[in-house]
Amino acid sequence: MQTGNQKRFPRFLVLIALLICIPLSARADAGTPLMWAGMLHMVFGNAIIGIFEGSILAWVFKLRKGLCILVMISANYFSAWVGGLFLNHEITSALPFNLYNAWRWIWVMVFVTFLITLIFEWPFVFFCFRKEQNRFKKSIQGNLLVNSLSYVLLFSWYWMASGTALYTRMNVVQPSEISFPKEGIVYFISKTNGICKFDLSSKQTEKVLPFGAERDDRLFVSTSTFNTNNWDILDVSKRTLICSNLQVTAVPFWRDTNHVEGTWFNFGDASKLGTVDKSDWKFRTGFWPIEGLRGENQKTGETIYFSLETPFVAWIVRSATQLPDDHVVFQMGDDQICLLEPSTKKIALIARGQGPVVVLPKEN
């Protein structure tokens, strides 16, 4: 004959499994799976985890179940809102995330978050042992036990809702390990050096103009006012003329033909530069970090997809330009200008800046 506890215990597993599936069905136009996972965890998930932890604590250490459940529910809301939401945010905001260290820092933060949870919930567990002998030792053991079990569930919950394809599907390499296009110049805004240009053939960076930019600022191209066969490069926020009457091959981003907006809305089909219309590859960036950058070879069916969206760091992909040899220059996050080589799935950081536009020498 099953006891009441034995009948109820499987329900926790069913409920937890159901909650884990919910973020995976979130629609992109209503947010991302990670956003839904976070909201569900903060509002409802902490109560479920508290019931789970309180039941385990009471069962293993023969404590009052009702009291343990109430205390552990309070513990989880406290640690999640104070420790997880505010303290974690302060820590991650101070970390120097970039293309080459983000994967390592993510795993460091997984461990740090677990430690924060242990610290914040221990006083609550200690309270559950207030009438027990060796309460200090038992509270340490109980705290480690229940949080280890629940953290595995939480890790799975957030892992399935996160986007990590940048590091699990792609090859992140140094610039010296990726082939560069034969020609092309990337104009961009550097936070420290103003307007700069990076020559893809020589791999040299040159300062163009001292300039102060806002976070959503970017550059764009427009037909020159002096010669309609040439191009001007301007800044979005100030409408400042950066370079005038350039004898180059350029292409406006598709949105710019109607209304020029900042970096945040500079997503969608990658601009196709030069003879790229003959390419079988088509690339597109998405609005949310989880949508990242997608590419499809319409002849072979080969696809490329990567993104990065985790509880600790999330990077949008913007201002993508496809070059004639199918390399793609794009901005990732606030200030990383990267180069993608589709044939090898290699990605390299080529400059620190924002709002890039790419131009080619004009064919004679």
Can you walk through the features of this model?
By secondary structure, this protein is an alpha+beta fold. It has 2 domains: 4-162, no CATH class; 171-361, no CATH class. Helices cover 37% and strands 25% of the residues. It is built from 6 helices and 20 strands. The strands form 5 sheets. It has a 6-stranded mixed sheet with strand order 1-19-18-17-16-10. The chain has a 5-stranded antiparallel sheet with strand order 4-3-2-20-8, with no helix packed on it. Mean pLDDT is 89; it is low at 1-10 and 22-28.
Brief descriptors of the model:
364 residues, alpha+beta, 2 domains, 6-stranded mixed sheet, 5-stranded antiparallel sheet, 6 helices, 20 strands, elongated, disordered N terminus
Q: Kindly give the count of domains.
A: 2
Number of helical stretches of at least 4 residues: 6
Helix content: 25-40%
Please state roughly what percent of the residues sit in beta strands, choosing from under 5%, 5-15%, 15-25%, 25-35%, 35-45% or over 45%.
25-35%
Low-confidence stretches are 1-10, 22-28
Cα-atom radius of gyration: 26 Å
Average pLDDT score? 89
Q: How many strand units?
A: 20
SSE series: HHHHHHEEEEEEEEEEEEEEEEEEEE
